[in-house]
């Protein structure tokens, strides 16, 4: 593979929550374009190692698994320190890790609220804070939201989850103003229904087929579809894209 076909050659990408699902697809895609990738995980070392092994077969960048709980400030700092120790800098920061619980207002507890805002909002924000001093001009920060924020048919049980992702979109929007002065772009990717193990778990086939038929392409998104969008935002071609949310929903949610 020629260097011209490796637009991210020599770059370092830190992808949180990348042992499986969308995160693993992102790690694989960025590595295939030449980036050296940190595959972050919390508990499942086996899946992280499998993701790293699959990347090792590519003619692109290399991958290293790093354990860290990025729901907390200290875990994020440790992950940044380990990444810089391994590769010297951070060019691409993909804040994919998050949780999605279900609770209506009636059943909402303080611990549920706190865990979601810690993992989905506080963790990514302070991880970005720790990473920015190690990011050169041309750096990319990519937050993760959800297509649910634009879906009129959202159900009440996503109350807190949607609130965290609304906060994330505003973090990215405002941070783009501050970090643009450093030459760093900040954007958000908001996937629609995507065929991950987590999304499919517990859903009957009839429900899945109904979700598929709600969009014009009559299918769910695939993790690779989301990874392609992230790769675009990480690419040199996206240097003038900042402060925006890219909704990757296959027109299911518009």
UniProtKB/TrEMBL annotation:
Keywords linked to the UniProt accession: NADP, Oxidoreductase
UniProt similarity note: Belongs to the short-chain dehydrogenases/reductases (SDR) family.
Signal peptide interval: none
GO molecular function: oxidoreductase activity, acting on CH-OH group of donors
Xref: InterPro entries: NAD(P)-bd_dom_sf (IPR036291), Sc_DH/Rdtase_CS (IPR020904), SDR_fam (IPR002347)
Name of the protein described by the UniProt record: NAD-P-binding protein
Matches recorded under PROSITE patterns: ADH_SHORT
Entries under PANTHER family matching the protein: NADPH-DEPENDENT ALDEHYDE REDUCTASE-LIKE PROTEIN, CHLOROPLASTIC-RELATED (PTHR48107), RE15974P (PTHR48107:SF7)
